[in-house]
Write a structure and sequence with these properties.
Radius of gyration of chain A: 22 Å
Order of helices and strands of chain A: HHHHHEEEEHHEEEHHEEEEEEE
Largest interface: A-D, 34 and 35 residues
Mean pLDDT of chain A: 94
Low-confidence stretches of chain A: 1-6
Number of strands of chain A: 14
Oligomer: homotetramer
Largest sheet of chain A: 4 strands, mixed
């Protein structure tokens, strides 16, 4: 985070990220923006307010002299989880906020944007460096919420009887793609550098760079597809206890899990899939998506393989990683692998479950103050996912990026790539 | 239900009731109409759709030849609890319906209205009688939902941090009123006729008219006020186990109940009250409202009195009942008693808890078919309330009307009037 | 409760009731006496202690000068629900009391018995009347717990994989009995006296005697049998929503109820029944037992009849009631009806569900003090059952006796008798 | 597990371990052995049966020709979690097993012991090696249940009003001990061998031995004491959000955690502690015990330190580890540190929380068959604890031993030792 670009760059970046957020929601109904299907998702309106609140709280209030907050209660409404920032609307009740209405939240965003731009044009010199650091953090934060808006709206829409589409139908439907075979690539292990190297932005949880000793391993050159997942189902994967971790087996039983989150049985033995364009027939060559860590782990055991560790993933990426599709591509659904020579689909496409717990790197230090709550306090019982997804902005992802979810969670765009011992 | 007025009357009545519903919600934000704070309340948008669905299902589909439904899935979305009418959106998930958007629901209402008016202008003679019976039932049904919309929105708004007002502030604030003393009126009991006498509309649960033997009793000539309720609190009413039914005491403990539903401690030992106009200072001469049956029963014991039975209430009304305020008065909050010689505030004002269980009258017969689910199947564990409230349309209430809620419920406008043995 | 017999009678009665309790549990294992399958049942060891605590608390402590309690904490352990008697072991955690061990609880009983007998031989004259009133109440209380011990142990044993028998197999197995046809008996209604007439013991909830106006009705001359219940099942009774109260239908769905509580499918389309002698084949002519009020009510609707009110039951009993089997008969299971001319099986056999809510009689007054918590505070949401069961001591039951349970409860010996409008 | 001692050694070991189990429970009441306070604990009677079942299932049934099981249903009753071994009594309902009575369970143990000894005297040569391997595993398994019996009974007894003692009071009370200062010992890190080296018994989860790269670190030379924990409380440790992981903070709030599991406020600002000898005053120099991983982690942050990783712990032990107290010492409570030059109290005393997730070692392979369910399937969301406790048999623990619990669990004897970056 030490390389801070000069202001004009920041102003453009700020405008672009903020604008993209609003473009993403332009076609939603006002009622759509207040839904909260479950405590772990948030209403779109709340995302819109919270991403403004971040700049409001961490930049404008401390650094913009004479700044007048937009509304005295918005601090309470739009704080997410920052204990150091005071009390807040309980997370499970975010969906009760019909007020402020959407128009007022958009006005709040405009108010914050105007103030940020005014501040950026004439920043107080003694705070300029810190302002720019926080601006950068705030934009990466907003990009995370861009992905969350896709995830959350998809879930909210799936659980409505009308199952509306989040996006209009595409002009040119995605080609089905041919099955490209999966091959294995070997890596020799040894002491590997892991973590962010210090140029460009990174979250604190990617630091410090340090060494990890790895045994030799092999990694699949593409993600697992719907076709392969279907074979797992057909072979009794969901009903064979010995494939599952004990917690995973309890979860499968308690929730009657029989397929990925958005697969929809058509009543005649086939599956459709709910996507941002509504329910459509299952695309067999597309990476399987919206699976839990438990499912990924069970599939890997069934396939006589295993999940990679996050260190294996990162070390392999450094040698042969290739990108897939991102938020800006506009499909918000993973695409089939195309032929290639490296490790295809490593960035974008689907988040790849690893068999690593989300833990601090050696000598990890969180950011000081309230922003220290960004990452460190969540280092418990979550698994690391790597590589970003088709709903991740392309400028947001990098090889050292550590995402984390509980192993039963499925509403993010999570998939898997297999590993094996060499 | 046997006296059916001629069509023109019905057309006007239909238009008036349907229009009032829409007037009531005209100033709400679209987001307001999708909220559902708890499973027992429904979103306003759902009420709007369901009241159209009632005419759609019970009149248009069976009797309007060539009728084409507005949307194939609305039957699923807007059925409430009629098992005989097929599957439906689960009640606790009505708040997940961002779609159809509000505008489409209003269009559905218009579609149904147009069809009903067309049908009424030229009803098939062999069905005319039944159509008019169902029309009347449908309008009383819609009036019930008018009151529910007030109750539900009040609850949804109370649980938002901004605590918005449902109504704009009044031009002329309600006068505080003077305390009018409470006096007791004696009734001699004996064999009393109970139930609807057969003229005008009544629900099936008010029939058949029959005889009940009553001991002599006395009844208070007005409802209990906030001032009197405050004395109950000050005297430890909520912390004295011996005043409470066992189930009530469990409920008080488990929910930390210390005051009526919408009383708001101001942090300095006083209470404000959340009303449809937002939080305002507690009006001491106003009837206490939004109390449970458990609280009403405990208060009565504290006051060395008891709740009346529904039969005592009805017998007393026939001799001396006087009205209070209704939905059309526009305050949607009870008003203080004014001096009078009879039993004041018996109709309108607040629903009055009785110590009667909601049970079938001797020889009770539900309506045939799906409409038989309207009342009879709810005759378990609920208590009867009598008299209507300030949120009840004035044309909807009558002395034989039996409302029913579980004794722990508080979101309706429930209050109490004391009784004693003579 | 005003006729108190002279002491010798009481001493014999006291000894007999206390001894029967201990005889009933003589063959249990110590571990059996600590089980609590669900919060609404209590361990046998707790019943043994609590019935001693009743005499300890309400007679010995107030009236026996110089009395020294057995153990300082037993007051806490064995209070059931008397708020006025202070804090107590939470009901759902009675099953955590491995200590005191059974032997110590039996010693506590002996301690209390010795003190009571000493007190009875030389009662303080000014308290003698009150002591004898409470003694009588305490013995009726202990008889209620005798029935509860059968109910609770039966439930605890049913939910063990080994399904042990509570009683040894009978020397002479009960004869299967012939089907005796069911006939209807008419009653003309009118103003009927209801409630206890004042001679002999009665609980406060049976008083005061008062008048109720009844329409003409008919009552079945015996209870519904397993054979008839089986026909209800075969006819889809449990899957036909229109037969059920709304709360009942929710209960059936949520609990997957498909048969009475202790019916056990044998896997070949037939049912066995778990009894106090273990699982045995279903006796078709025996009254159905362990059904809920919801089931009874649905069955009655299916049979084009209804449940009687408690007033109808009592009025009919006064004219034609006949007894069935009781606790002392030793079978602890109802017996088939034998031919007869009156209303057979009205006392004993099975508790008969009525369609009356458990409410206070007009001018009802609870006992003063803590004993006032015996009945009155439970008058909410429960239904009245009449007539006692095969697990009720014969000296404990009478025609005015009002038992009460929530309509979903089934672990007591509840069955039904049909009524119809005349 | 490859070095198998000759039979006589095994016979003695078998007898000793089996006898110790029975000695441990000799003074319990029969009722004590059936209690189950919470789903995660098991009744003592179940432990007694299950440890016999293990030999029954994995040795006698497969290898003892002509073996006749003791009871056809015991296989169902006493299977713990082995999916491959078929259905079983649901874990939360183990406390419902009043039958078989204790005496019959002891007879089952005797039956199994007799058969095992018979088999060991004349083992089928082709299976001898496997029998001995499983025997060894079965004895280590039984030792784990010895510790569980202490943990579970302690919890069951704590939640009874009488708070009985599990052990009689000691003849010679443990000396309070002097405070011994805590000092730090440095380790230089680098590539360290981790895991079992192959001699003697180890569980599969301790293998294979492999290399881990460590940064330099320091480790405290003793565990944290009650005195130090009290300072954490006094300094607001339990009410300072910034010290806690997010999940930990939620847990503290939801459960109102304010002290270790068995600390008992005396009402005058001091704490007592419930031990196996009942409640006694808090011994300040004794290691704090019965704390969760969340508490340990928060304490470490408060102390400006951190928890060690399991690899640091193991590497440090190899250089300087010293033992504390074990099950055989008979106190079943940790003892204060005595002066010493190494890392005191590393084995025995208290299990030490590490900041390592319980994950498979590289190239880990579970045992084949049902026994493969012993460890591997639990590798999710649990944290590793190292070193054994005062309730661990001394022959059961070793430096590579990996114990694992969820970070909120406290009923085992868990404490902590601090680490810091060098």
């Amino acid at each position: 985070m030490d390389q801070i670009a000069p202001p004009p760059h920041h102003i453009d970046g700020f405008r672009a990220v903020r604008q993209l957020t609003e473009t993403m929601v332009a076609h939603l109904e006002a009622e759509d923006t207040v839904l909260q299907f479950a405590p772990h998702v948030s209403p779109v309106k709340w995302h819109l307010g919270h991403t403004a609140w971040f700049f409001d709280t961490f930049i404008l209030k401390p650094f913009f002299e004479g700044y007048r907050p937009f509304h005295p209660r918005f601090h309470f409404l739009f704080n997410s989880y920052y204990e150091a920032a005071g009390p807040r609307q309980p997370r499970p009740e975010r969906g009760m906020l019909s007020r402020p209405p959407l128009a007022q939240v958009m006005a709040y965003r405009q108010w914050v944007d105007d103030a940020i731009l005014a501040l950026l044009h004439r920043p107080p010199p003694q705070h300029e460096h810190e302002i720019l650091r926080r601006l950068q953090l705030g934009l990466h934060h907003e990009q995370q919420h861009q992905e969350l808006m896709v995830m959350d709206t998809k879930l909210n829409f799936f659980h409505q009887p009308l199952r509306p589409a989040l996006l209009p139908p595409p002009l040119h439907p995605q080609p089905a793609g041919e099955t490209t075979s999966m091959s294995w690539r070997s890596f020799e292990g040894g002491l590997q550098p892991i973590g962010h190297h210090g140029e460009g932005f990174a979250f604190d949880n990617e630091t410090p760079r340090h060494r990890v000793f790895l045994e030799p391993f092999t990694l699949a050159d593409r993600c697992i597809t719907n076709l392969e997942w279907h074979a797992f189902i057909e072979d009794g994967g969901y009903t064979t206890a010995s494939l599952w971790l004990s917690d995973g087996w309890d979860w499968v039983q308690a929730n009657h899990v029989r397929a990925p989150r958005y697969w929809v049985p058509d009543g005649e033995g086939h599956f459709g899939e709910f996507t941002v364009q509504g329910v459509r027939s299952l695309s067999l060559n597309t990476p399987v998506v919206h699976i839990s860590g438990f499912e990924a782990e069970a599939f890997a055991r069934w396939a006589e393989a295993r999940l990679p560790t996050e260190f294996e993933w990162e070390a392999a990426f450094d040698k042969a990683g290739e990108p897939g599709s991102f938020l800006e591509d506009g499909a918000w659904h993973p695409a089939p692998a195309t032929p290639g020579r490296g490790l295809r689909q490593m960035l974008g496409g689907v988040w790849e479950w690893t068999r690593s717990s989300y833990l601090p790197y050696p000598r990890y230090r969180p950011l000081p103050g309230a922003l220290g709550e960004y990452n460190g306090k969540f280092m418990n019982n979550q698994w690391v996912l790597r590589g970003g997804s088709c709903a991740t902005p392309s400028g947001h992802i990098r090889s050292t990026y550590r995402n984390f979810f509980y192993p039963q969670q499925r509403w993010m765009f999570g998939g898997l790539r297999l590993a094996r011992d060499e």
